[in-house]
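HUMAN: I'm a chemist; might I ask for a sequence paired with its structure tokens?

ASSISTANT:
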Amino acid sequence: MYWIGMNVSLIGSWMQSIAQPWLALSITNNALLVSLVAVAQFLPPLFLTLISGALVDKFDTRKLLFISQTGLMIVAILFTLMMTMFEISFSMIMVLSFLNGIFLSIDAPARQSFVYEIIEDDKFIPNAVALNSMSFNVARVFGPGLAGIVIASFGIEYCFLINSVSFAAIIVSLFFIKNRRILSKNRSKNMLYSIRDGLIYAKNNHIISSMLYLLLIMALFLPHYNVTISALAKFELNGNEKTFGYLMSFLGIGSFLGALFIASFGKLNFKMIFAAPILASVFLILTGFSSNFYISGLFLLMTGFFFVVASSSINSTIQLKTKNEYRGRVMSIYSLFFQGSIPFGAIYSGALVDSFKPRCGILMCALSAIICIILLVRFKKVLFWKV
């Protein structure tokens, strides 16, 4: 029931994630300002995610998820009300995006840790992580295309309305799902000491730290599709919101296939984990230089496939290598690296797209990722790891 609720909720969230930057772009017509919306949303995780991870290790994960999901639902309702009853401004989009980021900073480490708590046997963790990723990418397939249709047929405000209703599915499911593991929650530790202890643990574990650094590189340079692909759709392919939505659906199909691949075959070895984001970067470059919608969609499909193959394998590797008492804090670092780095990556990609052509911006982002991954492989001596 939890998986069904999560799928429904994620479809609504993806519809909002498409509507939000398109709303900002329609008001400002400026890619850099659109990137600031991403900054506003993902800035709170920089300061709150580590605290949230410590809370996950201290308190009931289910209750924290209930709080975060309810908060996200309220923000979606506020977006809907502001658009239907008032003329929403760019500053209001920034404020609501910031509020969304606060609840996301609680939601991410709680949701990542909750996957482990409802799976009884460690050998199923890679499959569970892949299914979790598959749910995310099923939503990525249907959400953007549905958002494009809804925006064109009814209006952009209906995307936010649908999202606010969709949260009910996962909120209700939390009342029925049972934890398969009883994990001890140490509530006696000082919060700052607890955070410091978690950071030291992650740093001193060679595999965990390497996976986190790789994730950081990917998050900085690759997943800023709302900035890069929206600009590509509008300015290079001369499209509209449907074009953007359909391109994102191609990306989602590839991501779904990547998650299905991992769910079927398990996580990759370390060398392939590092190779996958390089391949994702190559296909992203090809996307930027294609002038045909369908070819761009095909390249985005491959980008999504290799990105999710890498990210799912990173997640399951970290889950399996982390001790239970550190899980919330380590997954909060995972969430911090993934979400907290997005503001910087969004500004970087937005500035490149705004200063040059979208194609040049995409090229420079992808090349930055490739160079940093090669340097990480050389520094960590990945080619000599024993699998």
The CA atoms of residues 352 and 364 lie 8 Å apart. The chain has 16 helices and no strands.
